[in-house]
Each structure stands twice: as C-alpha cells, then as structure tokens.
C-alpha cells in the first residue's frame, strides 16, 4: 500500500483545461466556487469560466459547482471558417486519448455564435463524422457504417463554439 502511494506521488498528474458554462451574470459566483474548490482560473468570459484541473477536478466540479450548467473538457482549439476546415481539424485532434477503443459517444450539443459556421446541426454532424473516422482508423475499422455500428450509443461529447468575433474556437 505504501509503495503504491509513493509511486503516485512521483507520477505527474495530467491536467486539463476545463470549461464551466453558466448563465450570464453568474460568472463571478462561479469563479468563487471554483477557487473555493482549489482550482486555478485561467479565464473568465461572458457566460463561462475556464479553469485548470485533473481528472478528480472534473468529478468534483460536476458535484460541487452549483452555478455551472455543466463541465466541459477542452480537447483542442482551432480556427475554422469552412466546414471542410472544421472536418479536417476535428479529425486531427487526439480523440483516442479521450474515447477508448470500445468507447461510445454521441455529439450532444453544438452552439454557434457570431460564426460563419452558423448551423449547429451541421457542426454536430461534421464533427461526429470526423471523430468516427479518426477512431475507426485507430481501431482498424473501415467504412463509415461499420465504424458507426462499432461506436454506436453513448458517452457524452458536448461541443461548444464560443462567442468570439475573431475566431471560431471548437471545444
């Protein structure tokens, strides 16, 4: 038991950028809740607070943040002004680090605010196809129908396109 604890001390704990969306006007309250849990705030914007935490932080934030609508894990960030760019850049993200070989997911939500990519349903569809193809290549399944059958059903994947005049960031 002691060896296990010593081993954990010396292992680097992987941290993530986490996004906690909230209702407008509650950002300061949410920031205080996150700080009270002991996590570092990286950015506060209208309708969301971004913070740094490990896997345990994801669990604790989901349980203890009263003003957050949900807790999102930021997989990547890029600029995409066309649906082709959205597809290719989504495909390039390391999905295999977050969705295991036998994992299941669905694209639950996409928002588009002040973006040239204005159709949330198209964003969802394109991103799901890119993720499915990426995971299919990794697990050795070919053909979109076979991949979809292999990955059908669901661990949630929420996508968020924030309000930003200069960039269309994808989370």
Strand content bin = 15-25%
Number of strands: 6
The N- to C-terminal Cα distance equals 39 Å
Taking all residues together, what is the mean pLDDT? Answer: 79
Largest sheet: 4 strands, antiparallel
Over the alpha carbons, how many angstroms does the gyration radius reach? Answer: 18 Å
Read across the widest sheet, the strand sequence of neighbours is 2-3-1-4
Coarse structural class: alpha+beta
Helix content: 25-40%
- Report the uncertain regions: 144-171
Task: Count up the helices.
Answer: 6
What's the SSE pattern?
Answer: HEHEEHEHEHHE
- Tell the overall outline: globular
Could you describe the 3D structure shown?
The protein is α+β, with helices and mostly antiparallel strands and 171 residues long. The protein is 39% helix and 16% strand. It is built from six helices and six strands; from the N terminus they run H-E-H-E-E-H-E-H-E-H-H-E. The protein has helices spanning 2-10, 27-36, 55-64, 83-91, 120-139, 144-151; strands spanning 16-21, 40-45, 48-53, 72-73, 106-109, 156-158. Strands 2-3-1-4 form a four-stranded antiparallel beta sheet. The chain has a two-stranded parallel ribbon with strand order 5-6. Strand 2 and strand 3 form a beta hairpin. Helix 5 (120-139) crosses helix 6. It starts with a helix and ends in a 13-residue tail after the last strand. Mean pLDDT is 79; it is low at 144-171.
């Amino acid at each position: 038991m002691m060896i296990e604890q010593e081993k954990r001390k010396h292992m680097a704990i992987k941290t993530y950028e986490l996004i906690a969306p909230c209702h407008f006007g509650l950002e300061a309250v949410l920031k205080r809740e996150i700080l009270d849990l002991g996590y570092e705030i990286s950015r506060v914007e209208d309708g969301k607070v971004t913070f740094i935490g490990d896997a345990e932080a994801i669990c604790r934030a989901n349980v203890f943040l009263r003003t957050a609508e949900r807790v999102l894990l930021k997989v990547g960030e890029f600029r995409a002004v066309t649906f082709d760019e959205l597809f290719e850049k989504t495909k390039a993200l390391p999905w295999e680090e977050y969705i295991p070989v036998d994992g299941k997911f669905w694209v639950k939500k996409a928002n588009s605010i002040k973006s040239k990519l204005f159709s949330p349903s198209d964003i969802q569809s394109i991103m799901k196809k890119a993720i499915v193809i990426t995971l299919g290549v990794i697990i050795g399944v070919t053909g979109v129908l076979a991949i979809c059958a292999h990955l059908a059903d669901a661990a949630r994947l929420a996508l968020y396109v924030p309000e930003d005049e200069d960039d269309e960031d994808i989370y």
